[in-house]
User: Fold this.
Amino acid sequence: MKNIDVCLTPDLLHLHSIDNSIVIIADIFRATSCMITGFAYGVKSIIPVETVEECKKLQEMGYIAAAERNARKVEGFELDNSPFSYMSESLIGEKIAMTTTNGTYSIAKAKASAVKVLAGAFLNLNAIVNYLKTQPYDVLVLCAGWKGRVNIEDTLFAGALIEALEDEYFVPEDSAIMSLRLYKQAKDDLIGYLANSSHIRRLQNLGIHKDIAYCLQKDLYDVVPILRGNELVNL
Assistant:
C-alpha cells in the first residue's frame, strides 16, 4: 500500500526520503492558492524561484513578475501574493515569474529529489485527490510554514488531503496522524479554528481580510499545477 506523510516545514525535509514520492507543496496563505487561481483564470505557466534577484532577472527577460516578502509586495514588481491579483484578463496566456517567502522556497527544496512536485491548496483539493488516486507513488505533503516554523493552515490542508485518501494510502508517521486529527477537529469551521493563528494575525494587521476566506474555500477549481522542468503548468 502506498504511504502518505507530512513534512511540517521545509526545514525538516532532509529527514524525509522523497525519491519515490509525489510532493504536494502547500502554502495556503497564499502562494499555492495564487498559483491555482492563476491557472484557473488562464495563466500559461509560472516559474517559481527562490530569490527576488532571480525573479528580477526573469522580469527583465519579459516575464510578468510576482514578488512577496513578509506578506508584502516587493517594490518594482507587477504582482503581489494575493490570489485576487491573478484573476485579471490581462494574465491570460502569460508566463509569470514568482518568488514568495515560503512557497517558492519549498518548491526549490523539493524539486531536486521528488518524483513530481504539485501545488496544492483547499481551492483544488479534490483535483489533487483524483490525480493522486491514479499514481503509483507515495505522497508527501510539504507544508511551507513560515520561515522554517510550523503553521496551522498548511497542516490543516495536509489533514484534509489525508482524510480524502485514507482508503488509498497508509498513514505511518505521527506528523501525518497529527495533521489528520487536527483537520477533523477544524473542518466544520476552518476560519474560526484559525482565528488566532499567527499568519491570519499577520494578514489582518496588513489589512488583508478577503484573502483569508477565499483561500479556505474547497474545490473551487479543477486545476493541478505540476512542475515540468523549472515551470509549473496545469495538467
User: Anything to note?
Assistant: The CA atoms of residues 69 and 101 lie 5 Å apart. The mean pLDDT is 95. The longest strand covers residues 2-7.
